[in-house]
Amino acid sequence: MTTLMTNGHAPTQAGIGVHVYLATASMERRYAMDADGELLIVPQAGRLVLRTEAGVLAVAPGEIAVLPRGIKFAVDLVDETARGYVCENYGAP
């Protein structure tokens, strides 16, 4: 993931971050968690399967997924590669 821009300040819990991602492999034995904010995942190309503490989400281009703050998750690729956008809200929910 690469950050394109931010607004606000994560430690004070005010603002957002805008990121892009490019993935070529699934997170097989790894998990991630965002303690700073909620994640809005917007696939542009390639389908994703998000394994979370709350269940499994399948997300394709034209759809979105929202991961609440503090949820552990892993991303599996359905296609060979995937790319898209992530908006991180580290302000008020």
Compact overview of the structure:
The chain starts with a strand and ends with a strand. The chain contains no helices and nine strands. A hairpin with a 4-residue loop joins strand 1 (2-9) and strand 2.
Structure description:
The chain is built from no helices and nine strands. With 93 residues, it is mainly beta. The strands form two sheets. A five-stranded antiparallel sheet has the order 1-2-9-4-7, with no helix packed on it. The radius of gyration is 13 Å and the shape is globular. The protein starts with a strand and ends with a strand.
List keywords for this structure.
93 residues, 0% helix
Helices and strands in order, then pairings?
Elements (H helix, E strand, L loop, with lengths): L1 E8 L4 E10 L8 E2 L4 E8 L2 E5 L2 E5 L5 E3 L4 E6 L4 E8 L4
Antiparallel strand pairs: 1-2, 2-9, 3-8, 4-7, 4-9, 5-6, 5-8
What is the helix/strand order? EEEEEEEEE
So how many helices?
0
Radius of gyration, taken over Cα atoms and rounded to an integer in Å:
13 Å
Mean pLDDT: 94
Task: Specify the biggest β-sheet.
Answer: 5 strands, antiparallel
Q: Would you count the extended β strands for me?
A: 9
Strand portion, in percent?
over 45%
Q: Point out poorly predicted stretches.
A: none
| Shape summary | globular
Strand arrangement within the widest β-sheet reads: 1-2-9-4-7
Note the gap between the termini.
22 Å
Query: Which percent range fits the helix content?
Result: under 10%
Structural class of the secondary structure composition? mainly beta
